[in-house]
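re: that chain from earlier
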Amino acid sequence: MESPAMIVDKEPASLDPLRQRLRDHLMKDETAVVKALLDAAAIPHDAQDRVAERARALVAQVRRERVGQGGLDAFLHEFELSSKEGVVLMCLAEALLRVPDALTVDKLIKDKIAEADWQAHLGQSQSLFVNASTWALMLTGRVVKLDENDVRDLGGSLRRLVQKSGEPVIRSAVTQAMRILGKQFVMGRTIEEALERAKAVEKKGYRYSYDMLGEAAHTMADAKRYFQAYRDAIAALGKAAAGRGPVDAPGISIKLSALHPRYAFAQRARVLRELVPQLKTLALDAKAADIGLTVDAEEAERLDLSLDVIEAVSGDPDLAGWNGFGLAIQAYQKRALPLIDWLADMAKRHKRRLMVRLVKGAYWDSEVKHAQELGFEGYPVFTRKASTDLSYLACAKRLLAEPEAFYPQFATHNAHSLAWVLEAAGNRPYGPGDFEFQRLHGMGEALYDQVVGADKMNRTCRIYAPVGSHEDLLAYLVRRLLENGANSSFVNRIQDEKLPVDDIVADPAAKLRGTTQIPHPAIPLPADLFGRERRNAAGIDLNDPRAVSELQQAMASASAEPWSDGPLVGGVEQTAGSRRPVVNPAERGETVGDIAWATPAEAEDALARAHRAAYAWNATPANERAACLERAADLMTAQTPRLMAFCQREAGKLLSDGIAEVREAVDFLRYYAARARAEFAAPLSLPGPTGERNEISLQGRGVFLCISPWNFPLAIFTGQISAALAAGNAVIAKPAEQTGLVAAAAVRILHQAGIPGDVLHLLPGDGPTIAAPLVNDPRVAGVAFTGSTETARIINQALAARPGPIVPLIAETGGQNAMLVDSTALPEQVTEDVITSAFQSAGQRCS
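^ sequence. v structure.
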């Protein structure tokens, strides 16, 4: 595990103006981006009319050809993800095939299928595939949930089938149904099997790009296995290509995250050192085989690192003269259009023609959630489907305008997008080999059967075909189900005969011009995630080179300060106690500062002052107390780099942990401020008999002792204090022995925000000397503690032994990461969680 001080490359890439423009677009206002795209994608009115006419004809023909045939397009429409059955299907497809034992399969089927209303779908589609699948799933649901008395509700033949077969046969049938579903998406288990299966389709004029299934590598052994699989596939494709060249030959698609277990910007130096030679090797193999190699697009946070790797390989002189190198661009990213400008510049500098696959994107839901969770300024993707469609058109136009730099590959299942590209390309002297379309294996056949072939439109389409075992299919399958099962998907909508054709092929530009609010109102910005109650804590994007550089400079400045502090009693630092060195737990030879521990006399003074101040603080209006906490939240946000430096050098936290630590502390402050306003600002009325008025008001108890742990030295420390202060209590804070400096920084911020010095005191020190006497003192009206179960038990017994009313103890104890993993879990996800548990929070992650 790298030292926290080295978790980000010391010298992040300096960005050229075009790359900086990409970063600026990442969090740029969505409305401004869309307005620019409206201009970039503009075409004449007569061209718009021709696009609409062609798109309508394509949809009508698809509907005519699909009657009674079905396939995955019809299946995904019938079981869209907005239905319960659609969710059930996705759960099954994601988990069922990796369950090794029959008992778990039975339980999974019972859990996920039994409650779904499959019968409601029977006969709703003219597709044989849909109806057959619906009948099988309905049968399974009925089998596992009906007792003998209910079996008579099924037909006589169905009853006999159940009696003869039993659940094991039904289990096998459902498992086989899932395998059939998987086969619709996967071209073959091996590249040889896929190539053989492709021959019949290639005769119709189609080409292929093969994707060796497998998600991100988590170990170097995984990465080596994927690397060898790519090399083997390239060798097989080279034999099949027979010198046809990158455009006409089958190609390969690769994921950079599959080639390196630490594929993240934080490990940029290592990735460039280790991954670039691997990608170059694969590119040289593809060059020798005379086929195309495309780097697939991944999450937005990886784009900058991917471009660093792609640029390094593209500029390698050993690859000069080969025009088979390429990459995928996701139109749903707000920076897609400026990315094309940067790529055009790179292609010209390297004297190559890039193969560029333009897609709309397959990680939309996770991109939105990721930005919300991390508190980013905005989203890297558009929040409306129409905006993504518009971006696609603008990108297509830009790609077609640079024929020397790009061989465009337009991946879409949308009839309007397809017709628009044909219109844009038709106005220029392009030949059949100057661009191509792409579709996914198992989808869009009826649409592209109207395009491919000399007797049709004589345009080329390449099929993106996954290759691998069913076990490797799962994550890919879920993305396809999410992407195409959503009720806004063109694949879904084209099957709905009730939807007018004009609605399906509507121009996205016209939709957006008629929209009063470009960002989707149901998708709040990350800062507004919690609505009017409170602002979401702001985060820092550790994949942004500029943000990381600024953060490192600010943290270095904070680390250069003299780190020395001590007890704060009445708002004044005390110096009577002995000073102790503070050592960096990640670099044991580094002393980062010193702190004075409180003396018993200082503890007594603090308690006396807090006891006297508690009444006046409780009488302070709740709105004023809340305002103090909110000011503290803003001050902490402004001092994020400084507080992160404390977390890193005093508590051994990684940069990502440090950001989370500050954000959680800020969120505690705002959350308890909101609760104070809601529950303490005025008495709450209670129901009662006529003529009576019954109210309840919440008040502080007096002095709270807050004892916090070292593994969350700012977040839990602040959470305990802010809750007690919001409720009207005075507070004595006793931080963990190891992390007194960050605690002192937090208390000083709270004092600066308006919390009186006599209301909040800081007493660094050990438990027996400081905490134990306070626990036993009758002036302490409550204790909040996070730590070991043994210590919590001692505190509980001490409080119970005190005479008088029961003293509250709020305890969070014994945090242990007992992780229960069954066979339905996704191994990649489990691995990530185990690593998080083992190494984040310096190995003390208790959640």
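The CA atoms of residues 776 and 801 lie 9 Å apart.
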